[in-house]
Amino acid sequence: MKKILLFAVGVMAMCAISSCGGADTPASVAENSIECLKNKDYSGYVDLLDLDLEGKSSDEIKSTKLMYAGLLKSKFEETSKKDGDIKDYKVVSEEVQDSVASVKMAVIFENKVDTMNVSLKKDKSGDWKIQQKK
Length: 134
Known about the structure:
Elements: H1 2-17, H2 26-38, H3 42-47, H4 58-83, E1 86-97, E2 100-109, E3 113-122, E4 128-130
Antiparallel strand pairs: 1-2, 2-3, 3-4
């Protein structure tokens, strides 16, 4: 009985740790990104971005990720002041063509409902990553 309980606790811990990690489908990555924003896990969101970090030192990578997390936090705090916190979200549609995808999300804030399109592409390792808007 102790082993079963210990196993169940271990599985729950792994799920909690990976709640804002990568995923297998574009829709699940888009959902994870909104979940990260909802939980104010800006570093987790940044990990889902398609950042060009190849050839950079570990210090440069860390600095770049911290910069993106700070910018995201600032931007999202502005949105939260105006629209309130995220209450819920759902995938409206998902279109996948080879290594690119578009996921339409409905995001329910305290003060409004918004739709957003999340553009994704597969990286070199085959993981879906969110493309940055330019």
